[in-house]
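User: Can you predict the 3D structure for this chain?
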Amino acid sequence: MKIGINDLLLALSNRYVKVLRYVLLWLKENCKINPTKKGVKTIIHQDVLWTASIFS
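Assistant: Here is the predicted structure, written as structure tokens:
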């Protein structure tokens, strides 16, 4: 079974990547947290998904 990527899915994934990049940059500049530290991206991923579930 092939799944085609439509414009909506592509836009959603694009926005998700932009949010992750923004949060990682903000943490690096304002909180002096190393974004490459183990576990940081997992925590951000969970928080972004939790926030998205609130607004949907």
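Helices lie at 7-30, 40-55. The mean pLDDT is 78.
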